[in-house]
Amino acid sequence: MNEHLASGPTRPTVTVIIPTFNRASIVGRAIRSVLGQTYQDWELIVVDDCSTDGAEQAVRSFSDNRIKYIRHDQNRGGGAARNTGIRCAQGEYVAFLDSDDEWLPEKLQKELGVFRDSDPTVVLVYTGKMMLDETGRVLEIRMPTKSGWVYEALLDWNFIGSCSRAMVKKQALERVAGFDEKFVAHQDWDLWLRVAKVSRVAPVPNCLVKRYMGSDQITGSLRRICEGRERILQKYRSEMKPRTLARQLAVVALLLFNYDPRRARALALQGLRLRPVQPLLVAGVAASMLGLDSYRWLFKRLAKWRQGPYLGRARI
């Protein structure tokens, strides 16, 4: 791993970490959104996960000495890239930004304001986000909804969402040992769960993130989404209440019916035993009897209606 880190006389308050892999054409947009922040006491660490498309040149085209570039010698995944950034971070707070997203100018300032006004037991804050397609058209806006001790609520669904929305105290990240690098998807959800289990969370009541729904994202693959969901289920199953477990089994089963009906039916049966009244799951089981093509057609339309830009736009 090649590291190019500049040392300064004082430590920055915030470390921004951008992991990137073969996004030379758009990583500059993310970097410019950091440069444009109203709060300027930050360092930016861009971790290049062994790109082959000239990402290094794209990063080094910015002359600001607060920007540090680190390159992995082999592709290790987003979790590993973020962990590399965390280990090198000098800031008291860490904010993550995906290389295909961007922040609005007041993002860091608003987050630090919430930290300043919150109890010290708050170690994570998260903002609202708008989701856009490749043309910049707004598909959906999601705002923060929960605060405090949210572990049980997070077991039910990942309302914090993507890494770009969050700022976390570095000590808290070190306490939970950062990202679990075994996750290919939902690594953010897993981290939020481990943080929320021991600390409080606070919302920032502003929409400050632009999240672009590109076709090359992990969230663009139903198989990857399902693999991440299954790992969440395996890791936290014993801590889920029956209603939550039934719901998570149903979600994984509905995903699996797209390509592994036998395993999907086994999980669906477990979910229905825990909670027999699940109309969507029952409908999914019935639809699976029509064959893969028919099920996939119905699933995509239902997912677009229920889950919006994520499942509704994902590849099988």
In words, what does this structure look like?
Helix 8 packs antiparallel against helix 9 and helix 9 (242-256) runs antiparallel to helix 10 (261-274). The protein has twelve helices and ten strands. The chain has two domains: 2-212, Spore Coat Polysaccharide Biosynthesis Protein SpsA, Chain A (Alpha-Beta Complex); 218-313, no CATH class. It is α/β, with parallel strands linked by helices and 316 residues long. Residues 1-8 have low confidence and may be disordered. Helix content is 41%, strand content 20%. Strands 1, 2, 3, 4, 5, 6, 7, 8, 9 and 10 form a ten-stranded mixed β-sheet that branches.
List keywords for this structure.
single chain, 316 residues, alpha/beta, Spore Coat Polysaccharide Biosynthesis Protein SpsA, Chain A, 2 domains, 41% helix, disordered N terminus
* Major sheet: 10 strands, mixed
The total beta strand count reads 10
Question: How would you name the oligomeric state of the polypeptide chains in this document?
Answer: single chain
The CATH C-level class name of the largest domain: Alpha Beta
Give a concise summary.
With 316 residues, the chain is of the alpha/beta class. Helices cover 41% and strands 20% of the residues. The protein has 2 domains: 211 residues, Spore Coat Polysaccharide Biosynthesis Protein SpsA, Chain A; 96 residues, no CATH class.
